[in-house]
């Protein structure tokens, strides 16, 4: 069964602009694809594996070809289990607010944990290759200010949100990426709602086209 995985990176829930637009996308997606499965990974509701101790030792044991201890095997199995949700999905939907010019630390934690050799990418003397090929990603970005190149300010040079996510997606093999950007959400309720309305319409159109 075709599967969409929604990765929620905002803890604000009902107040979140990125989740507001993601909900519009999901509603349209369900209407267009009633036979598809939707999986939700709320990064604020799940216990993410710590990447230290046994997990870190397992990484370097794997790189060197050494045998893993039972504790290291369990740590690696936990990471594989979490990453499997990415492998099982055909479409990846991310709702990502901008925090301190970048992404929330829970999303960075998730990316750091699952981005491992032979889990999300392969690596040998010829270089690296992503293992999530053939998938589609839709990323909904929310920002309080205008970080576009057309803003008339140097704000775009502080955008480490969208460039980071899209570079990571390419690294793990996802090249079919659509983006929805909600900006100026801190400039008052009227500006915020207008930005959300435009983004919702874009998200609905993308959901129906999948």
How do the strands and helices of this protein lay out in sequence?
Blueprint: E1 3-8, H1 17-32, E2 37-42, H2 54-64, H3 70-88, E3 91-97, H4 105-114, E4 121-124, E5 127-130, E6 136-142, H5 162-171, E7 176-182, H6 189-209
Parallel strand pairs: 1-2, 1-3, 3-6, 6-7
Antiparallel strand pairs: 4-5
Helix pairs in contact: 1-6, 2-3
According to CATH, the homologous superfamily is Flavodoxin domain
Q: SSE string, helix = H, strand = E?
A: EHEHHEHEEEHEH
CATH architecture: 3-Layer(aba) Sandwich
Relative strand content: 15-25%
CATH topology: Rossmann fold
Q: How many whole angstroms does the radius of gyration measure?
A: 18 Å
Going by helix content, strand content and strand pairing, the class is: alpha/beta
- What's the structural domain tally? 1
Mean pLDDT: 95
The first-level CATH class name:
Alpha Beta
User: Could you give the order of strands across the largest sheet?
Assistant: 2-1-3-6-7
Characterise this structure:
The chain has 210 residues and is an alpha/beta fold. The chain has one domain: Rossmann fold, CATH 3.40.50.360. It contains six helices and seven strands. It has helices at residues 17-32, 54-64, 70-88, 105-114, 162-171, 189-209, and strands at residues 3-8, 37-42, 91-97, 121-124, 127-130, 136-142, 176-182. The strands form two sheets. Strands 2-1-3-6-7 form a five-stranded parallel sheet, with helices on both faces. A two-stranded antiparallel ribbon has the order 4-5. α1 (17-32) packs parallel to α6 (189-209) and α2 packs across α3 (70-88). The model has no long low-confidence stretch (mean pLDDT 95).
